[in-house]
């Protein structure tokens, strides 16, 4: 009931589902759930802001800005698999070629 | 709990609103970037949960506590979130307390009302009508005229 009061708050029921999807989690206190939701909101704001700062013209946020921060900030290393830098197929081929040459 | 894969995503509408509130007005954010941030937020929840759960396990507790979540931010090197979260927790606790107080207050009130209702039934209806016995008061008739010469 109180969850939908603030339109900019993440739905805690969904946050709980995600938390519970981790197999070794036994139980989550109500306070811990609430704080995780808030922490995630802070994280979203933070990620948006640093991506904007990375943007060349500083008036838009594009995928490449996100990929840039994710792959240059150590703190965001955990996101590297889901927000990879985009590369051209030709670049991919040359990377592959290099790998093969090295091995 | 029926778990569909989309249940592990956060609602895009809410995520978009949070982003729009964070960045200055007029700044455009591409759909691809929004989806990526949304996914990142889900992964963040999992990462934080796993860190907090480890702290709980270390403390031989089964339930993740608020302190575990706050301390997990340090493990993740999101130290800048620690202070805001402490504040949020304090506000949350105050809010919960006042909700609780209000609920018990309401209960008390209901009880009191029931009690006073019972009491007033016992009271006799001893209110006599006060008769207006016509004590006529002198009302001044005629007006007092003040003449002022000030204007001149």
Automatic annotation (TrEMBL), chain A:
<comment type="subunit">
    <text>Heterodimer with POLE3; binds to DNA. Component of the CHRAC ISWI chromatin remodeling complex at least composed of SMARCA5/SNF2H, BAZ1A/ACF1, CHRAC1 and POLE3; the complex preferentially binds DNA through the CHRAC1-POLE3 heterodimer and possesses ATP-dependent nucleosome-remodeling activity. Within the complex, the heterodimer with POLE3 interacts with SMARCA5/SNF2H; the interaction is direct and enhances nucleosome sliding activity by the SMARCA5/SNF2H and BAZ1A/ACF1 interaction. Within the complex, the heterodimer with POLE3 interacts with BAZ1A/ACF1; the interactions are direct.</text>
</comment>
<dbReference type="GO" id="GO:0016779">
    <property type="term" value="F:nucleotidyltransferase activity"/>
</dbReference>
<dbReference type="InterPro" id="IPR050568">
    <property type="entry name" value="Transcr_DNA_Rep_Reg"/>
</dbReference>
<keyword id="KW-0175">Coiled coil</keyword>
<protein>
    <recommendedName>
        <fullName>Chromatin accessibility complex protein 1</fullName>
    </recommendedName>
</protein>
<dbReference type="InterPro" id="IPR003958">
    <property type="entry name" value="CBFA_NFYB_domain"/>
</dbReference>
<keyword id="KW-0238">DNA-binding</keyword>
<keyword id="KW-0597">Phosphoprotein</keyword>
<comment type="function">
    <text>Forms a complex with DNA polymerase epsilon subunit POLE3 and binds naked DNA, which is then incorporated into chromatin, aided by the nucleosome remodeling activity of ISWI/SNF2H and ACF1. Does not enhance nucleosome sliding activity of the ACF-5 ISWI chromatin remodeling complex.</text>
</comment>
<feature type="domain" description="Transcription factor CBF/NF-Y/archaeal histone">
    <location>
        <begin position="9"/>
        <end position="54"/>
    </location>
</feature>
<dbReference type="GO" id="GO:0008623">
    <property type="term" value="C:CHRAC"/>
</dbReference>
<dbReference type="GO" id="GO:0006261">
    <property type="term" value="P:DNA-templated DNA replication"/>
</dbReference>
<keyword id="KW-0007">Acetylation</keyword>
<dbReference type="InterPro" id="IPR009072">
    <property type="entry name" value="Histone-fold"/>
</dbReference>
<dbReference type="GO" id="GO:0003677">
    <property type="term" value="F:DNA binding"/>
</dbReference>
<keyword id="KW-0808">Transferase</keyword>
<keyword id="KW-0548">Nucleotidyltransferase</keyword>
<keyword id="KW-0539">Nucleus</keyword>
<dbReference type="Pfam" id="PF00808">
    <property type="entry name" value="CBFD_NFYB_HMF"/>
</dbReference>
<dbReference type="GO" id="GO:0006338">
    <property type="term" value="P:chromatin remodeling"/>
</dbReference>
<dbReference type="GO" id="GO:0046982">
    <property type="term" value="F:protein heterodimerization activity"/>
</dbReference>
UniProtKB/TrEMBL annotation, chain B:
<dbReference type="GO" id="GO:0031490">
    <property type="term" value="F:chromatin DNA binding"/>
</dbReference>
<dbReference type="InterPro" id="IPR009072">
    <property type="entry name" value="Histone-fold"/>
</dbReference>
<dbReference type="InterPro" id="IPR003958">
    <property type="entry name" value="CBFA_NFYB_domain"/>
</dbReference>
<keyword id="KW-0007">Acetylation</keyword>
<keyword id="KW-0175">Coiled coil</keyword>
<dbReference type="GO" id="GO:0006974">
    <property type="term" value="P:DNA damage response"/>
</dbReference>
<dbReference type="InterPro" id="IPR051377">
    <property type="entry name" value="DNA_Pol-Epsilon_Subunit"/>
</dbReference>
<dbReference type="GO" id="GO:0008623">
    <property type="term" value="C:CHRAC"/>
</dbReference>
<dbReference type="GO" id="GO:0006272">
    <property type="term" value="P:leading strand elongation"/>
</dbReference>
<comment type="subunit">
    <text>Component of the DNA polymerase epsilon complex consisting of four subunits: the catalytic subunit POLE and the accessory subunits POLE2, POLE3 and POLE4. Interaction with POLE4 is a prerequisite for further binding with POLE and POLE2. Heterodimer with CHRAC1; binds to DNA. Component of the CHRAC ISWI chromatin remodeling complex at least composed of SMARCA5/SNF2H, BAZ1A/ACF1, CHRAC1 and POLE3; the complex preferentially binds DNA through the CHRAC1-POLE3 heterodimer and possesses ATP-dependent nucleosome-remodeling activity.</text>
</comment>
<dbReference type="GO" id="GO:0008622">
    <property type="term" value="C:epsilon DNA polymerase complex"/>
</dbReference>
<keyword id="KW-0238">DNA-binding</keyword>
<keyword id="KW-0808">Transferase</keyword>
<protein>
    <recommendedName>
        <fullName>DNA polymerase epsilon subunit 3</fullName>
    </recommendedName>
</protein>
<feature type="region of interest" description="Disordered">
    <location>
        <begin position="93"/>
        <end position="152"/>
    </location>
</feature>
<feature type="compositionally biased region" description="Acidic residues">
    <location>
        <begin position="119"/>
        <end position="139"/>
    </location>
</feature>
<dbReference type="GO" id="GO:0016779">
    <property type="term" value="F:nucleotidyltransferase activity"/>
</dbReference>
<comment type="function">
    <text>Accessory component of the DNA polymerase epsilon complex. Participates in DNA repair and in chromosomal DNA replication. Forms a complex with CHRAC1 and binds naked DNA, which is then incorporated into chromatin, aided by the nucleosome-remodeling activity of ISWI/SNF2H and ACF1. Does not enhance nucleosome sliding activity of the ACF-5 ISWI chromatin remodeling complex.</text>
</comment>
<feature type="domain" description="Transcription factor CBF/NF-Y/archaeal histone">
    <location>
        <begin position="9"/>
        <end position="71"/>
    </location>
</feature>
<feature type="compositionally biased region" description="Basic and acidic residues">
    <location>
        <begin position="93"/>
        <end position="118"/>
    </location>
</feature>
<dbReference type="GO" id="GO:0031507">
    <property type="term" value="P:heterochromatin formation"/>
</dbReference>
<keyword id="KW-0539">Nucleus</keyword>
């Amino acid at each position: 009931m109180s969850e939908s009061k603030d339109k900019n708050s993440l739905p805690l029921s969904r946050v709980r589902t995600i938390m519970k999807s981790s197999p070794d989690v036994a139980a989550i206190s109500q306070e811990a759930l609430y704080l995780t939701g808030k922490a995630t909101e802070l994280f979203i704001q933070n990620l948006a802001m640093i991506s904007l700062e990375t943007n060349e013209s500083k008036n838009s946020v594009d995928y490449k800005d996100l990929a840039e921060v994710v792959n240059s900030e150590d703190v965001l290393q955990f996101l590297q698999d889901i927000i990879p830098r985009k590369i051209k197929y030709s670049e991919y081929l040359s990377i592959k070629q290099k790998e093969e040459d090295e091995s | 709990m029926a778990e569909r894969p989309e249940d592990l995503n956060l609602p895009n509408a809410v995520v978009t609103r949070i982003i729009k509130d964070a960045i200055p007005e007029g700044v455009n954010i591409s759909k691809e970037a929004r989806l990526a941030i949304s996914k990142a937020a889900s992964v963040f929840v999992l990462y934080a949960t796993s860190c907090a759960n480890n702290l709980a396990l270390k403390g031989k507790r089964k339930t993740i506590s608020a302190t575990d979540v706050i301390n997990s931010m340090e493990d993740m090197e999101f130290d800048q979130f620690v202070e805001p979260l402490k504040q949020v927790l304090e506000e949350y606790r105050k809010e919960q307390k006042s909700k609780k107080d209000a609920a018990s207050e309401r209960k008390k009130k209901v009880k009191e009302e029931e009690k006073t209702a019972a009491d007033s039934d016992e009271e006799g209806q001893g209110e006599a009508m006060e008769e207006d016995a016509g004590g006529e008061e002198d009302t001044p008739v005629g007006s007092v005229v003040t003449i002022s010469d000030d204007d001149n």
